[in-house]
Amino acid sequence: MAGKGMLLVALCYLLATVASVDRNNFKTCEQSSFCRRLRSLEPQTGEFEVLAQSLQQFKQYITLTLAHQRTKHEYTLKLACVKGGSSFHMQVDEKQPLSVRYRVQDALVQEPQYGPTKVESTSGTLIMVACGEGDGVKAAIQVAPFKVDFFQQGKLVVTANGKGMMRFEHLRHKPEPKADPDQAETEQKEGGEQPEPADEPPADDPGAWEENFKSHHDSKPKGPEGLALDFTFPQAKVLFGVPEHADTFALRHTATKGTDPYRLYNLDVFEYELNNGMALYGSVPVVYGHGETSTTGVFWLNAAETWVDVFSTNRDTDVVSSLVNLVSWNSQTEPPAANFISESGIMDVFVLLGPGPTDAFRQFTDLTGKGPLPQLYAIAYHQCRWNYNDERDVESVSAKFDEHDIPMDTMWLDIEYTDGKRYFTWDHHKFPHPVEMIRNLTELGRHLTIIIDPHIKRDGGYFFHNECTDRGLYVKNKDGGDYEGWCWPGAASYVDFFNPDARRHYADQYLLENFREQSETVGIWNDMNEPSVFNGPEVTMLKDNVHHGGLEHRDVHNLYGHMQLIATFDGLLRRGQGRLRPFILTRSHFAGSQRYAAVWTGDNMAEWGHLQASIKMCLSLSVAGISFCGADVGGFFGNPDGELFSRWYQTGAFQPFFRSHAHIDTKRREPWLFPEDVKLVIRDAIRKRYRLLPFWYTMFYEHERSGLPIMRPLLAHYPSDVNAFAIDHQFLLGDQLLVAPVLDQKQQRSRDVYFPVRADGQGDWWYDWDTHRKHTATGVEAIPCDSYKVPVFQRGGTILPTKERIRRASTLMRHDPYTLTVALDREGRAKGTLYIDDEQSYEYRRGHYLYLEFEFRDGVLSSRKIDTTATYQTDTWLERVIVVGLGKTPAAATLYTDASGAATGRLELE
């Protein structure tokens, strides 16, 4: 996070939150009126029915009319097969709403592409729909009560409204108050006044037509407009997803009185608590259900405040939080389910039918987009704190990394670099020569990243504020004036990123002709973009604020930070004239944010529990499309001791985004400020990251191609191993590395590692990455750990590329040679890939790259180009090959290459 507030409100905010999060500042379900009204904890008979005669068939979708049985209010159901045949798109909206209900824009990578959608049969009770491109992909629409069963290869895998919890509050005129309350009471007793239908808010609900929270008032101009729909996963044992929460990877059972559902509402939460479903900085409304033979998902495309109740098969919450999870799943319990409850919008649902985990993950990123390949430096090590004081401080820290022989690629500046919290400016007392400072870092092979937040200081002497005011580019309050809140600058207004003119003007500020004191290599950090408003309800913006086109903020709240990313990415792309790949880090995020930025897990604490949470949170984000994830190494708040700090570095070195960051009130914690033994452990961890950069870079490229997560739960590749379902203290990188970092102060001598079981009942061979010792058994094994040890294992059957010459920055390693570690499986075989390009530009999208496959078989290591038309001239070469798992030591090795000696060839062992 960002800078020290000079105003009283900001100081009070810091003091109130620095001890721990104040839960009283944030709503519970009971305090959120729509959640209180629409939440159901027990199955019931649904009150919606299909009017079968309303069926209309089109080539790529069908429509039906739904009616509420009591109110007779009608809704339109649209059902379509997504192109590819393994997903359905279902939408429900009012047939004739009083006003248009909001449909989420800008989250999907493109408008959904549909394939053939056919009605196979109809009856008075059931309508069968099949996907023309799918293999046994069907939907069965039950007429009354309404529900939809989704089938994959003849197997029922998802049911919508199976618990009958569907709700849809139609827009209506506000009722006139009764002139005579006594008369109304008499009419009700005599039967003259009928009870409200199920979708009508109770007459005494104080939050239906307007709502108060603490001192804040929400005028609710459209009245109640909430909706809910439950989804059951008949083949699943465990549910996971719906980030962002500081909780276990496997979702806990929440459908109990006194327990809140998981909340999706982007909020600025200092020192967040662990092991609960409290809302945090981002919201990705996708949930997956996984069992031994099936993985499916539901993507609830809604950007309003949303609560998700989980009906879990295993209600022993201690099971999923234990260090080694060996679970006896009860097959006799009800299948798990999730109930989505949103404040406004429409029901816009994608049902992802798998059938495997990686199939479901790919189906989600096909919709929301893949993370683009970053520049190589962005996946190296970043050094940050709030704040580096001045130019001399920046230069000194950079020099100290060289002095202590610790690689580092990027220095970061928090908000104190600005002129009085005015973004796109510099404090010239502290930073009199910013361009020269940036150039000095660049000449060393390093980069600079600076923070720019969405709140704009209300100051008549600030050019950007004046421009936004004059052009009408700010978010408005309900009365049509520019909304004013409080954040780090004091009085601030907020750019309306839903306004195309505002996005363009904001993006223009990044151009070198406007923001001159930067360079095209500078990265950008978008923080406080939930948006954070210190004096707002729940530290955020009023829901009845108004965006461009008359959008209420309540409809788009969770999209606000995402829209800032779109503008920032556009600005950086044009700043680099379309050549350089932008680097952006964001705190707020939504589905699809992976197309623009990396994400970190916010204002964590220097505690072992928060170190453990970094894995759980990044696993949940990764399966929700956001692979470029990390946590503040060491914890943002507090002062870690040497053991916690070094163990956190060892964990962060194996997560996609690797940055150390700290609060302004913490002690300085650059590695050399710790005792020598701690510094050397940290140095070793960072250098391990740099050795593996070719592997990381290849994974990021393959993520852009496939959409599969980089950091993966064990169930991704061991889907039938029930003991692996809930494990969130170790993880996979691709399918090549198993990472089980030391996460507990008690694990000083050994660390229990779980080696998973394949579908055939056997285990893979795993080779210790440090010693090459082979592990062939499945189950839990205690791995000895000294202070340097990070238990990491390469899977037999894989080939891993590394670079062994560690330099001060990754940019200086471009032409260094590669080493291949060939880890053999039971059959004596292995495969692997390596991706090479210029590491910074978009030339790879024009065919300027090398994508190689290596294969070891029958004693021969061969290489070939995967994309034969792609070309890239490189000065690097293959320096060394390490083969582990051989039955005997080879007597000789012979190398054969093609005419160029560059991309293809083979190595024969004798």
From TrEMBL:
What are the record keywords, sorted? Endoplasmic reticulum, Glycoprotein, Glycosidase, Hydrolase, Signal
- Record domain Glycoside hydrolase family 31 TIM barrel: where: 372-699
Renumbered residue ranges of the record's region Disordered: 172-227
- NADP listed as a keyword: no
Signal peptide span: 1-20
Q: State any GO CC term.
A: endoplasmic reticulum
Give the record's family classification.
Answer: Belongs to the glycosyl hydrolase 31 family.
Identify this protein by name: Glucosidase II subunit alpha
* Organism in which the protein naturally occurs: Anopheles maculatus
